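Section handout, structural biology tutorial.
Before the tutorial, make sure you can parse a SMILES string by hand: atoms, branches in parentheses, ring closures as digits. In the record below the ligand is pyridoxal-5'-phosphate, and the chain has 392 residues. In the tutorial you will relate the predicted structure tokens back to the input. Do not try to memorize them.
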Amino acid sequence: MPEGVVHNAPMIAMPSRLPQVGTTIFTVMSRLAAEHGAINLSQGFPDFSPPVRLVERVAHHMAEGRNQYALMAGALPLREAIAAKVESLYGARYDVEAEITVTAGATQAIFTAVAACVRPADEVIVFAPVYDSYGPAIELAGGRIVHATLRFPDYRPDWDEVGALISPKTRMIIVNTPHNPTGTVWSAADVATLAALVHGTDIVVVSDEVYEHMVFDGARHESIARHAGLRERSFIISSFGKTYHCTGWKIAYCLAPRELMAEFRKAHQFIVFAVNHPMQLAIADFMAEAPDFAPGLARFYQDKRDFFRRQFEGSRFRLLPCTGTYFQLAAYDAIADEPDTEFARRLTVEHGVAAIPISVFYPGGDDHHVVRFCFAKNEATLVAAGERLRAV
Ligand SMILES: Cc1ncc(COP(=O)(O)O)c(C=O)c1O
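Predicted structure of the complex:
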């Protein structure tokens, strides 16, 4: 550009591929929380550390020189550990060579599964309130997002509605249990109904199970892996970030029958190729050494849920049931009548606690005056947040 020439207009015409997308609500709320010194219960990450032993194993593998590319499908010891875990928990056998791929977080696994399967004009059914990465992945592939509704206040799927939304254009259904943001968990009957609906079709299922180990009150996680009829058409995705308190490492995995996984890997190898090598090896070691850690997470987070819920005693918030994940929903209809986005902003700025408004997870912005708190926090953080929330 010649000196002195100021260009306000873009020099090239570049219509956005994602015109509706701005900065995610998680970034917005975390930034607002930082600016106002608020306790950040908005974004979903722990404020405590991964197990010391796991971190030690990362250092070990780095020192041992395992610092170059891992295998494209993932380090073999980690794929072996995943196969053993999935078989012992869900009774499903996945082939280590052909049916398991380690990914750079669940986000990448979801993106890759969509990129590998969805063609322009294909329809993909998602359930709203919907985790925010699904829509853009579908749109970038040229697909059309079709929303089924998880209706307030119990957020149960309406299977008649889902049945009516399925058409010859439906390429994929993306499901998520335990569910972010609502903290609900699907039953075996839900999974069986889904299986019946897709039976005899060519619909692919993507099952986002990143909170698989956070199911409370004695209920069991209804992994799609338990269901033979669904397993054969599904990508099942879980995240080590959630399970081992290391969301910043961005390591997850995807399971799928070999034909589907072959397509997944065609895309995976050009989107990310391979994932952080020493961390994969460390997770594999830790899974072998501490097999009870992941199943123990249900008790760990159930105790946190109960502790956090007790902080609301005497508050004007109305807590909704939380049967899984590390998110607690709270209705504020007894406190204010304003939109949830405004309430969440004011809660952060005026009361010092950041939360996520639920309307942002609905395509039409449905607002039931509900916000989401993340309770994956130390007790001191939850106590301090509770003091502030009781004063609202
Ligand atoms: C439902 C759901 N899916 C996927 C992800 C992304 O997981 P990862 O950090 O492994 O990409 C999250 C993270 O919050 C989530 O809540």
